[in-house]
Amino acid sequence: MSTILPHLSAGPEGRTPIVFLHGFAGDRESWLAQTIAFEARRRVIAFDLPGHGAAIDWPEIGHAGVSAKAVIGSLSAMGVGRFHLVGHSMGGATATIVALKLAEADRLASLTLVAPGGFGAEINHRLLRRFATATEAHEIQALLEQFFGFERPIPRSVAERMAERRRDPRVTATLARIVESILDGERQKSFDLGALAGLPHPVRLIWGNQDRVLPTRQTLGVPGTVGVHLFAGVGHMPHLEVPREVNRIIAEVTAAE
């Protein structure tokens, strides 16, 4: 089996690439608005994390630490040295672990976290557990609405595509395993956020004030050196709800190289 996670890779070589890590129950296509925006200017890489998308049969599946190991190994196998890193939700927790592990190696040029996991103990565990095992389009639609801002409509086609993929029983079984590895009962495992102050590169945090998965107040625990961007009327999916604004922030933080 390949030692490289399934991924999208596009754009020209030369400038430092941007690596995108999706959230729980997502896949590399979650970042289409971002990869399309940046691929004309630099290389972009969007992975399917272990247990997701085309990586459903990855040898080791579990929490963000498992994904971080797979991401680091994949980038090394691909010959990627220095890179910018962007992660959402569980992918944000994964990105944070990658950043902390590679801090002394100086491989990261920047870290952008979108509603990341691990920034506090509170988490909507009921929603995640139900979403992991939902198989019918109407049920998935109702649960998906909880991930977005109150006035953000979710096209029915999104839920229908997810229901189609979940006809494979491996999908929900794997997601159920992953969600239990993320959670510690009714809470989530969290970082010592003070460690972010020691990272040698810019760190940005993007969050929506209507996030019903991870409360926005978890931004209050970050060191003052971390740039925080809060969006009104946005839920847990800022990169999908306000993609132009998120792309602008990514462009600013990656502009130096």
From TrEMBL:
GO terms for biological process: acylglycerol catabolic process. Pfam families: Abhydrolase_6. GO terms for molecular function: monoacylglycerol lipase activity. Keywords: Hydrolase. The keyword Hydrolase applies. It comes from Methyloraptor flagellatus. This is Alpha/beta fold hydrolase. Residues 18-248 form the AB hydrolase-1 domain. GO terms for cellular component: membrane. PANTHER family: MONOACYLGLYCEROL LIPASE, MONOACYLGLYCEROL LIPASE ABHD6. It comes from the Bacteria. The keyword Cell membrane does not apply. The lineage of its organism: Bacteria, Pseudomonadati, Pseudomonadota, Alphaproteobacteria, Hyphomicrobiales.
